[in-house]
Amino acid sequence: MNKNILVIDDDESIIWVIKKALEPLGYKITSRTRLAAGLRAVQEKTHIILLDLILPDGDGLEGLREIRSVFPDAIVIMITANARMQSTITAMKEGAYDYLEKPFDIEELKIVVENAFRDLSLREELKQLKKAAFETENPQMIGKSPKMLKVFKDIGKVASKDITVLITGESGTGKELVAKAIHYNSSRSLSPFIAINSASIPRDLLESELFGYKKGAFTGAVKDKKGKIETANRGTLFLDEISEIEPELQAKLLRFLQEKEFTPLGSNETIKADVRIIGASNKDLAVAVQNGQFREDLYYRFNVVQIKLPPLRERKEDIPLLVRGFLREATEKLETGEKELSKEAKALLLKYDWPGNVRELENVIKRACVLSTGTIIENKDLLIEENNSYSIKDFLEEKLKHYLKDMTNATNCNLYGTVLSEVEKALILIVLKETNGNQLKTAKVLGINRNTLRSKIREYKIK
C-alpha cells in the first residue's frame, strides 16, 4: 500500500514539520492551505488526511463530513491550535480517527500515523477476506453468458457508489446474492449485511421488524428491541419482495430513505441510521404503481439503479459452470464423494426449462448427489420429468392443438373466452390444492390480490 498523506492546513510551518518528520519514513506528503483546494485534492488513493479544524475559507468539521461521505474509507486526523472539548467530541462522532493539538509532539504524530496505516491495512485485509469468503460460499454467482456478464458489470459500477439499488428477476435467480456482492464490494463491507423478506413476515409485524419497538408498545413487547434498520447501521439492508409492503409502511420507509431517520414503535425518539438500502422484487413494480399497489415516489427512490437478473432458461450456457460448482459443494459439504453427470443427464439439464431457476438447479444437483448410488449421475437420479422440459408456451400449444381441431369448425363458440376461462379455472384449482385451500397463499402464488381471487372462485363456482 502506497503511504499517501494529504495535509490541509494554512500554517506553512506545520506542513514543513510534518514533511520533515514523515517523509524520511517513506510517506508521500501532499499539502493544501485552503479547505476547498484540499477537498478537491482528496482522491481514492489518499489514505490519510491531516485536517486543520479552522481554515481561512471554511470549517474543518464540515470538511470532515464531506470527506467521510464521499470517501468513507479515508482516515481523517484532526489537528488544531484551539482544542475545545465539544469540537473534539463532535469530530470523533463525525468519524475522525484521532485528534492532535498543536504544537503536537513529533513522536506522537509518528505513532498516530503509523497506527492509522496499520489499521487501514488490517481493514483492507479483512475486507478482502470477507469478499473471498462470500465468493467461496456462493458458487451460484458465476456465469459467462452475455446477460450475466452485464449483471457483473452493473454490480461493479454501483458497488462503490452509495446509492439505492433495485434488483429484479424471477424467484430463484439469486437476487440476494447480487445484493451481497454489492455489499462486499462496497465501502460498507466491514459493517453488517442484513436481509429481510417482506413476503415471509406477517404484515402487522413487518413494521416492528424494520424499525424496532419500545417495551409496552403492544401486547407481547416485554422489552425494547432493535429493528433491522438500526442493526444494519453503517452497513446494508436488503429488502426482498418489496412489492409486498403495505401502503402505510411504504410511506414510513420512504421517509427513512429521504431523512435517514426513523422512530421505533411506542417511542417519541427519532433515531438516525446510516444504512444503504437494496430492494428486490420478482414483480414488475412499474405495473404495481399503475395498479395503485406501490407508491410511485417510493418506486423512484428505489429505482435509482436497476439490475435485472435473467432467468436460467435465458442463459443455459451457464448451466455447466453452475453444475460444476454445485457438484464440488456437494462433495465438500455433503461428503457424497466425487460425482459426475452422464452425457444423457447433461443433455437433460440443458433441455429442461428450469421454472425454479438457479435455486431449482442447485436442489436437483445436490439431491442427485445424495440419492445416486454410483459416481455417475443418470437421468433417473435427477428426478426431472422429461416431458416437463419445455416451456409453458410449448405445453399449452401442444395441448390446445388437439382441443382446437374440433372447436375451429364450430361457429359462435366464443373460443377466446372459453379457453381463457378454462385455463384460469384449472390454474386456480391446482394452486388451491397445493396450498391446502389457503386463499391468501394462493393469491400470492398467482400474483393477484385476495379480492380478485375470491371473485374468481365465485365466478367459477370453485368449492
Your description of this structure?
It is a single chain. With 463 residues, the protein is of the alpha/beta class. The protein has 4 domains: 4-126, Response regulator (Rossmann fold, 3-Layer(aba) Sandwich); 156-309, Rossmann fold (3-Layer(aba) Sandwich); 313-388, Helicase, Ruva Protein, domain 3, CATH 1.10.8; 398-460, Arc Repressor Mutant, subunit A, CATH 1.10.10.60. 50% of the residues lie in helices and 13% in strands. It contains 20 helices and 16 strands. The protein has a 5-stranded parallel β-sheet, sandwiched between helices. Strands 9-10-13-8-14 form a 5-stranded parallel β-sheet. Strands 4-5 form a two-stranded antiparallel ribbon. Helix 1 links the parallel strand 1 (4-8) and strand 2 (28-32). Helix 6 packs across helix 7. The chain is globular and about 95 Å long.
Task: Kindly list the characteristics that best describe this protein.
463 residues; Rossmann fold; Helicase, Ruva Protein, domain 3; 4 domains; five-stranded parallel sheet; 50% helix; 13% strand
Compile the SSE list and pairings.
Layout: E1 4-8, H1 12-22, E2 28-32, H2 35-41, E3 48-52, E4 54-55, E5 58-59, H3 60-70, E6 75-80, H4 85-93, E7 98-101, H5 106-137, H6 146-159, E8 165-168, H7 175-184, E9 193-197, H8 203-211, H9 228-231, E10 236-240, H10 247-259, E11 261-262, E12 271-272, E13 276-281, H11 285-290, H12 296-302, E14 305-308, H13 319-333, E15 340-341, H14 343-351, H15 357-371, E16 376-377, H16 379-382, H17 392-407, H18 415-434, H19 439-446, H20 450-460
Parallel strand pairs: 1-2, 1-3, 3-6, 6-7, 8-13, 8-14, 9-10, 10-13, 15-16
Antiparallel strand pairs: 4-5, 11-12
